[in-house]
What does this fold into?
Amino acid sequence: MEPSILISVVVPIYREEHNVRPLAERLAAVFDRIGCRWELVFALDPSPDRTREKIDELIRDDYPVRLVTFSRRIGKPLSVLAGLDYCRGDACVIIDADLQDPPELIAEMIEKWREGYKVVIAQRISREGENLLYLACARLFYRLLESVSEVKVPRDTGDFRLLDARVVAEVRRFRERHGFLRGITAAAGFPTAVVPFDRDRRHAGKTQISFLGAFNIALDGIVPFSRAPARLMLFSGLIWTVATALVGIIWLGYGAVAGFGTNWFLEILVIFLAGGIGLTVTSMGVLGEYLVRTYEEARDRPLYIVDDVLEARSALSGAIGRHTEPLTQPKEPASR
It folds into this structure.
């Protein structure tokens, strides 16, 4: 591979002190074999552990690291988008720090990129050591997303992917507060390849994503990229209105013929009324989700605020792979 090519690796990171160095070492081995320059961009949510110190050690050890630290915790989706703002490679790989996504797969992803694909997505065919209920919910989410999304998001894929520099430039234009990278990448378009892999157990530590966090990510994937929830709310309301009107007509007709002494139709109406209240509350919740997101975007606040940026300034002369030339100043984040 041409040694002049630069591959950026963006890692959103929070509370991963035990995974920082193993990740960097495995990445170094991968790029030593590939034979090209690389940079490692850590997008760090302020962590209460020693994640920051471990990354500082990598910088002192001449790993080609750029560390972007935020003024407050912003969450993984925005951390990924911020990392893309600060990368400068001919292609960029997004990967988690927990080593469930194997860095060795990057070599195959780069081969697909060299074949002409602008986007290469890693697709999980198995997920070792994860909660069965969580896996079932994930499968349900991806199938639901596939059926309602206006853009095509491959099943069982996460943020582990390679993006050509042209795609990165287009993704930077999506200044969305709830940045669902899988949907944004699909919305950007471009030729896409899928590389299957078996997902490993976490190298160390516990997952930072709770069921509530996963639910929020699911909303971020469905609401911005589909009108189906709003349409479903409309159709459900219409069906409920028609059904209630029919029951009312039948009740009136029955009462006109047999008299209004019985009350079973009244009970049915009460049931319909109770159900209607539930439908109304649910519909208001769906509508509120869209309105809140519209309000958040309309405020036009900064997506993130960077506290500081540190990067490696020196390298071993002539080194390819683990060490690279001194890094330049990072690209300024794109404005809205």
